[in-house]
Design a protein that fits this description.
The protein is an alpha/beta fold. It is 38% helix and 15% strand.
Amino acid sequence: MTPPAPALRIIDTHAHVFSMTMPLAEGAWHTPAAEADPPLFLRTLDEHGVESGILAGASISGTNNDYPLAACDRSPRLRTTVIVAPDCPLEVLQDMARRGAVGVRFQLRNVARVPDFASTEYRALLRHIADLGWHVQLHDDARRLPDYLPGLEAAGVNVVVDHFGRPDLEDGIGGEGFQRLLRSIAGGRTWVKLSSAFRLGSDALVLQAASTLLEHAGPERLMWGSDWPFAAFETQVTYTQVLNDLSTWVPDPVTRHRIAFDTPNLFFRPRHDQD
């Protein structure tokens, strides 16, 4: 007899917290449309039965990580990635780790000048990331992933790629970028988030990407994230909708539980599980 599926436990591995009064970086691509503060995010998690959340460093704040770190200070249910300069001192990173930081985010989409991960500064930063037990959170279009993945693989850091790897409508899952992502996953240090499907522009492409990732990566290398509060899509997307999307992409309840909880729980070890 097949054992019953476990009750779905959920960790949201991709969300942001914004304030309409927080300082923004010069040239920020988005201005928060409404308050999306930590208390509101925690209430949203509670309303949907989600246990904890991993915040993603927000590029609109540049290297100012005060807001998400303060959110982690206030709640052991939250952790965050940060955006830092490549010469960020180790002691600063260590202090961020004590406050709940778990990785460094490289938000490279639409960024013309991309990092040289072979440079002295970036090699030092990647060593610090590895030594802290952190990960690199990578966001860019799939077609540019081959520019970064070899250097990150050579550095020996864990990599979490945002938003299905962002395959585009022209290249799809057959494009070299998405195929390079699959090879990186096979190498054992790369994970992918099933998140922000509404940004990909095609339900069919999302289903193809989800199915291919399940086939090649399995639930051990996949996690789910909401991308709350859905920046630039605030009036078009709801938390209920993105939760329901996971059931569409992953119909099997056991596999869905592994993606929604088991894999991120092992990867991030949320702080409330350590108390």
